[in-house]
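Bench log, entry 3. Co-assembly request; chain sequences pasted below exactly as received.
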Amino acid sequence: MAQSARARPRRAIRVQKRRALNLDSSPMSDGNKSIKKELAASFTPADIEAPLYQKWLLAGYFTADSKSTKPPFTIVIPPPNVTGSLHIGHALDHTLQDVLIRMKRMKGFEALWLPGMDHAGIATQNVVEKQLAAKGLSRHDLGREAFVAKVWEWKEESGGLILDQMKRLGDSVDWSRERFTMDAGLSTAVLEIFKRLYDAELIYRAERIINWCPRCLTALSDIEVEHSDDSGEFVQVRYGDDEVSIVVATTRAETMMGDGAVAVHPDDPRYKDLVGKKVLLPLVNRMIPIIADELVDPEFGTGAVKVTGAHDPNDFEMAMRHGIEMPVIMNEHAVMVNSGTRFDGMDRFEARKEVVEELRKLGRIVSEKRPYIHAVGHCQRCDTTVEPRLSMQWFVKVAPLAKAAGDAVRDGRIKIEPEELAPRYFDWIDNMHDWCISRQLWWGHQIPVFYGPNGEVVVCGPDDVPPAGYVQDPDVLDTWFSSGLWPFSTLGWPEKSGDLAKFFPTSVLVTGYDILFFWVARMVLLGLFVTDGVAPFHTIALHGLVRDRFGKKMSKSRGNTVDPIEFMDKYGSDALRFTLARGANPGTDQAIAEEWIGGSRNFATKLWNASRFAIMNGANIDGEVAPFESLNSIDQWILTRLDETVESVDQLLEQFEFAKACEIIYHFAWDDLCDWYLELSKATFAGGGDKAEISKRVLGQVLDQLLRLMHPMMPFITEELWCSFTGGETLVTASWPKSDSANRSEASKLIVEQLQDLTTEIRRFRNDQGIKTSAKVGANFIGLDSLSEFEASLRQVCRIEPITGSASAAIEVGKVKIEFDLTGAIDVVAERARLTKDLATAEKDRTTAKVKLENEGFMAKAPIEVVQEIRERLTQTSADIESITAQLAALPTK
RNA sequence: GGGUGGUUAGCUCAGUGGUAGAGCGCCUCGUUUACACCGAGGAUGUCGGGGGUUCGAAACCCUCACCGCCCA
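Structure output for the full assembly:
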């Protein structure tokens, strides 16, 4: 028996599956209520998600119209790498953007969420080079043109995996406007802005120390270098001979062959007499000067440092200032060359060991510290230790641009949310070094500079043709250069396109704080420049990172990463979205665990079941809701709570407070609607007649509005439920709920609060008495007064029926007394325990209130409302104590 | 080294001056015709330590400890 009973619902699911899958082939609803669809007995996300997304695409709901008269609302997606797949961080980022876009669309905006991808220079080139390496080839075997063709081929075949995954998540992006940073249009934008910057003398070429990755063989910008603690060594080496000698401290002994000087602080008394003298550089036996420079920290090591201009950024500065020689003694692979020593040909780390060994043999090592933990730069893409390298590169002169970018935030043209993160922005943008934009790669926008036979330099804009015989610079631009143009290049700039006119400047930029500098700041820099001060977006909404359940950073090496696709398979996209949105407090990281997503799935199921129940009980949206004043208090209460919820959720979402908005929705739906309203109204529905009809319409209203309100967070399930319930075509373009304070009643809240107190106390009493939840118990209410019209509801939720005989036990809740016929002795021990505990709580509360009221300082200085509140608390707790004491006394003494 | 955020229930986190909260977890009971992906009830915190301001502090100030992040 039990088995077959369990088997039944499963079969029902299977039947429904077929029906749901047929959905997308059926003609779209025209709003005719006659084609309401029956809901499956249980919620199976996999059955509804793909068909619904298909339906949305076919209907073109996500396609924005540049000719629309509606006000625009635009978000450009942070373009994911073409090599990337959807990770949990994208899922968060996209969920938040989709929530905003869907809400604004429902609010009547012409909402455009523009999707696309980034060509991701180094990352993509690495992928294809790895494939070649598997065949024993390098990119040089193919040559530039063939290699780039190969990358394009790879992009067409394997790139953009993430785009399909975005559909799983429900992203309501406008696929007709999908962009790629290497598209023709976007490339034109790159050429245009490069030329403009060059003409404005904001781009220049120079030989500088840059960050060099000896594995990727390219220059990197400052932020593409990640500093982390490495275990190195710290040695003190004696330079010089018997006449002049000085001990220098270094972590990079291998570069000493490139030393041009030794530097000390000008005020350092230890070395006063040595400044200006020359000292013998060991191993290469060259005489180098001892100079004085403010940059030297006298506290560090011996207070004397070697100056290796070609291999250290600080040393480069000093060398420039003092006109010191800068011999280059390493090649692009970080292998020692041209030092004229036996170390030539050695890798830098090998050379370090050998050099120290040699110095030790010569008795020049004064002290050694190993391991010496210090911060070392690593290539963001391959983790190779970065090598400072003197080379010719292209730079953006950022000072004037950065000033403007800082001012835009300072004067409020751009708002950073949460504003606590603004200082971080200023800190960076106000201290930004010139931006190295050339990369020694092949995949990317080739720098539009052409060199003539006699050293002429010509920069070509989109419409320019280089003079014959000129050769283009082989380098490409930093990927962030083109993504920095994203908010306008994607809309057609530099053309005066309809999209640009309608949708630019964009509205909100939603992204993780981790790419504030990489991407966001660059868009502001470049955006303000091309538009003469128009900010590319008015708000930057920053969210945090997704971490593991213990709040630890996710990483492959830790093995604590999670797969959003797996979660969607298991719990549904809505569950994943809701979990992420519910954890998204502005600018702060969130932890995530599989159980949390399971919890959201449970919430979705709850909503599904509640909706089915409501529909089954005749909830509807036919005609108008009866006038608010004419409704019973329970109906007034749920509408009041609905209105409060609508108002809060709307405000919170507008302020990017996703977590709080979700929290409010969760509790309204689960606690207020399911646990209380539906339970309290069961008696009304069962009672039939006009009263039932009125309440059914109220319930319909609540369900209709709630589903609308939840749609941005949980688009699939709400769409399925709403269309089924109302017969409407879609929630995607349905109107957003509006709060209306006329639909509120504080009095109804007080009444329901009393009903809740009564119910809870009765349930507690039953529980303590060991009475099964399902068992009906005889009891009468005394003193219900204004609550008497809800007696049937109370009886329903408390499962008590009227008694005619004598009562054997009673409890008091407020002014109401409930007399029970427990037909036999009640559990006196349990009851005494319960009452004693209540008494203790009440006494404690009364004491706190009393102490306050007897405190002269409190009475004199506390605001009158607070005093009043405490007075009421004293009255209430005193009454409670009296009542509990009486109940205790009435208990049989065994 | 310079900034900066944090330390609240077993875990992850809300809570910016008036009786400590949520989700998950935990304990007890339960096949109430929406839902066991559920329901009912329950337990759990001298809000990191110390000092101060205040009638009143988790919240404001000082200080110490620890953790994290950004930048060098």
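Residues 592-731 of chain A form a domain with the Isoleucyl-tRNA Synthetase; Domain 1 fold (CATH 1.10.730.10). Confidence is low (pLDDT under 50) at residues 1-35 of chain A.
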